[in-house]
Amino acid sequence: MTEGIFDAVMNIPPYSMVNMNVQERSPMKDPEEEVPPPDDDMQQEEAEQEPDEIPEDIPSSGLDAILDPNDETNTMWREYVDKPKTPLPVFDGFIAVELSAEPIPFHFVRTDAVEWDPQQAHAMAMNSARIACDSADIFRGRAKPARIERRMTPACLRRLENASQLLVDHMRRDARLHARIGILPVIMGSISGWLVNPRKFDCVVMLRIGAERMCCNMVFERMGTVWKCSYSDIG
Q: Are 194 and 201 spatial neighbours (Cβ–Cβ below 8 Å)?
């Protein structure tokens, strides 16, 4: 029995001679190689597509909508656009006041064609300075409204009196507010004005009461031969 098994084992051919029916494996493929190539027709259609163009019938919103370089009828528009810019007439000067150690500068601009000279500008600066200081004194209860009733319209003077009553009542209850704006004199800083038309003049006068800085906005209207203040706002 033992000899038969031994003979069977010895009759097995060596490993190198065994016919191994091993199935040959194919190498791994790249996933990108499995993607089909793009269609040539699709590429051709995309190449034939042109970018969107703005229709010519849509008008432009710029200056070329008014001025056509090839049109000879735009002479009037071109003269207006290409017209040289001329600066507005300006009047600069100084006025002397009692409580200021330095002259007070003023700067007036004329915005219309009315004729003005430096003497008129200086007189208007003096008038604006007086009314601004008087308005501030009336506003805080240190002057009577009758002081400027000839240089201010009745409606403007009435509004100034109403504002003065409110501020004076408030200062009676607040001693600190009274000490801030109710005791020290008014000192001017500068005056800026605009001659809007021959019968209207706007100006701003910078004021200082102690450490408090204020401004007085005023509107003057020419009534006959006199300039009267029709609006006065202090803040």
A: yes
Please say if the pLDDT value at position 15 is more than 60: no
Q: Flag whether pLDDT at 17 surpasses 50.
A: no
**Can you give the pLDDT at residue 110?**
87
- Buried b vs exposed e over 207-231: b needs ≥16 C-beta within 10 Å? bbbeeeebbbebbbeeeeeebbbee
SS3 97: coil
Average pLDDT over residues 196-207: 91
Report how far Cα 222 is from the mean position of its chain's Cα atoms. 33
> Quick check: 168 pLDDT over 80?
yes
* Measured distance CA(125)–CA(105) in Å, rounded: 9
What are the angstrom distances between the C-alpha of 114 and each of 90, 128, 228? 13, 20, 19
C-alpha 58/C-alpha 67 separation (Å) is 16
The answer to whether 147 touches 138, Cβ cutoff 8 Å, is yes
HSE at residue 108, side-chain half, CA atoms within 13 A, is: 23
Question: What letter does residue 118 receive in the DSSP assignment?
Answer: H
Amino acid symbol at 88? L
Q: What is the pLDDT of residues 176-189, one digit of tens each?
A: 999 999 889 998 88
